[in-house]
Amino acid sequence: MPDSSTVVRQIRFHITRYNPELDRVPYVKTYAIPVREGMTVLEGLHYIKDNMDSSLAWRYSCRMGVCGSCGMLLNGHPTLACNTQILHIADRELTVGPLPNFNIIRDLVPDLTPMFDKHRSVKPFVIRADETEVNEPAGEFYQSPEELEAYLQFTYCIKCGCCMAACPTLATDVRYLGPMPLAAAQRYNVDSRDDGRRARNQVTGAAQGAFRCHYAGECSRACPKGVDPAKAIQHLKRRLVLDYLRLARRKKPCQKLHGPGEGKPLPNIPAAPGKTVPGDSFPNLPERSP
Amino acid sequence: MRETKYWTWHMAAGVVILFLLGLHMLIMHLGGITQLFAPHAGEAVSKENSLFRDGKLFFTVTYILLLGVALYHGLYGLRTILFELTLKPGAEKAITIILLIVGLGLFGLGTWAAVTAHSIAIAGARG
Amino acid sequence: MAEIRRHDNRLGLWGWLGGGRWGVERYAYILHRLTGLGILLYFLIHIVVTSLRAAGIYLWVEGEFLHQPIFRFGEFLVFAAFAYHAFNGVRLVLVELGIAVGRPIEPVYPYRTSLNVQRPLLIIMMILAAAFLVAGGYDFLGLGK
Q: Where are the domains of chain A?
């Protein structure tokens, strides 16, 4: 096991700095910091902020690759700072910049608002004709494991924006929806509970939709969660073409299985254990039998 | 959804071009190997061989078909590249109109030429 | 509160070439664009030149102008562009219609993406394009006859 307490070597961080109140354009400032085995880029930034320059700004939250806040351009690769160990990508030098294709708010903080606006525009939620069933559900929808697998991969998206930073089309086309929103659209299109594909087609099949993707593949390479947006977009295009040619099979969204409490457990499944905590915090649970 | 329509036919045109332009390349640039449709001595592009192909209805029809689908595929591709530069709506409209005029103009010219060359070749064959 | 000034960090045309990581599909994408533009330019001129035959002008046979080595080489470049654009185009049709990218999978690290799924197709297509190109080069050098 590598020793994480001793410093391995000094690494020079070349960090893009930009203060909208003082600077006309971003500039690069260099900090040399001692790096230990297993230290992430996020920890390196913390070291700089704590010991060298308290004015450094970046965005982060969970520090374990779940929240999607710390997407940055590390040595030219858009990825998460918390998920990347310094010694894995840097020998002596490490460039840290904000995600490209977004405006810079300050230092390493990109303005992700346009991405979220585009995400909202593709209606990333289950759309059904029986709206009350969605808003006030009276039972569960039936969904087989195969139907779950059809969209599960695309649900792992954490909206970090790395794919948007890697996309060559977005480098010039401001209006292109981009990999994240399109993958989100596909995630709901193939959800067997959903019936909103045709509504989404109006956005994803329009001039700034899926057909601006030419499969350079950068989004899938950059994605820190393995969501594979490029795959989602190609499947999305296929459905758009089939829908246009009227070759798509019409499928009804899956139906309600039964109301709450109406389900019957399969035989041979033992009953749930009773409650272990005394009191009436969970009044519906049966008392645990001795 | 208009883009879906354009793009679907862009793909379909690509497949048609693959076969027709593939044949064109086999005749013109691999002629030394394939010796396709070039009964006269000399290169496949010689005047005699050219007239021979112009005289065949198959070639006249496929010339016009290839001309149409290739113009559509190529000009739509150019439009896609230009539109990805985030132009102003006015500029996009102007580009669409210019490409439409260029495409239709060249299609007209090429069709006229193919039909005229066909009748010249037939008249020539009759002597 | 005053509106905060933002710095536009869009990569622009440079982003088409090297925005993030350089992958082989990125090269394929940019080369597909360049060859497409090249073929289109040639094609538009080609239509006009060959249409002149209806008026009895066979420009590519008559005169010495179009027989200079530079035009011969240029013609070979167009042929090479076609070979690449056609075979890569076959891959793109299969990929973009969702046929050659595989089904959604559970993402388990190290991630395997659709890029891995279509890579063999890319390699096969490039080999075919190269073979076509070699045959064309053989012909262009006049070795066919």
A: 7-110, 112-244
Residue B78 at interface with chain A, using a CB cutoff of 8 Å: no
ipTM of the complex: 0.92
pLDDT digits (tens, 9 = 90+) for A211-223: 999 999 999 999 9
pTM above 0.95, yes or no: no
Instruction: Tell me the CATH number for domain B2-126.
Output: 1.20.1300
From chain B, pick out residues whose CB is under 8 angstroms from the CB of C136: 25, 29-30
Which residues in chain C have their CB less than 8 angstroms from residue A111's CB?
6
The CATH homologous superfamily of the domain defined by A7-110:
Beta-grasp domain (3.10.20.30)
pLDDT digit string, tens, across residues A29-78 = 999 999 999 999 999 999 999 999 999 999 999 999 999 999 999 998 99
Range of the domain at C66: 24-140
Contact list, B116 vs chain C (CB under 8 Å): 54
Task: List Cβ<8 Å contacts ≥24 apart for C132-137.
Answer: C132/C83, C132/C87, C133/C79, C133/C80, C133/C83, C135/B30, C135/B33, C136/B25, C136/B29, C136/B30, C136/C76, C136/C79, C136/C80, C136/C83, C137/C76
Neighboring chain A residues of B7 at a CB cutoff of 8 Å: 211, 237, 241
* C97·B11 Cβ contact <8 A: yes
Instruction: Give the strands of the sheet with A7-17, arranged side by side.
Output: A27-36, A7-17, A93-97, A71-74, A77-80
Pick among C9, C26, C94 to test the A interface (most A CBs inside 10 A): C9
Per-domain boundaries in chain B: 2-126
How, if at all, do strands A93-97 and A7-17 pair?
parallel
Give the total number of structural domains in chain C.
Answer: 1
Q: How do beta strands A109-111 and A27-36 pair?
A: unpaired
Contacts with C, B 35-64, CB within 8 Å: 45-47, 50, 54
Q: Residue A242 region, left (φ>0) first, then alpha (ψ -120 to 50), else beta?
A: alpha
CA-to-CA distance for B118 and C37, rounded, in angstroms? 30
Question: Does residue A24 contact residue A76 with C-beta atoms inside 8 Å?
Answer: no
Does any domain span residue C14?
no
Q: Residue C113 falls within a domain, yes or no? A: yes
Assess contact for A181 and A122: CB atoms under 8 A: yes
Does the beta-carbon distance from B81 to C54 stay under 8 Å?
no
Q: Which residues contact A267 (CB under 8 A, 6 or more apart)?
A: none
Instruction: Specify the CATH number for the domain of residue C135.
Output: 1.20.1300
d(CA A111, CA A133): 36
Strand bridging mode A7-17 / C7-8? unpaired
* CATH level 2 (architecture), domain A112-244: Orthogonal Bundle (1.10)
Check C144 against B32: CB less than 8 A apart. yes
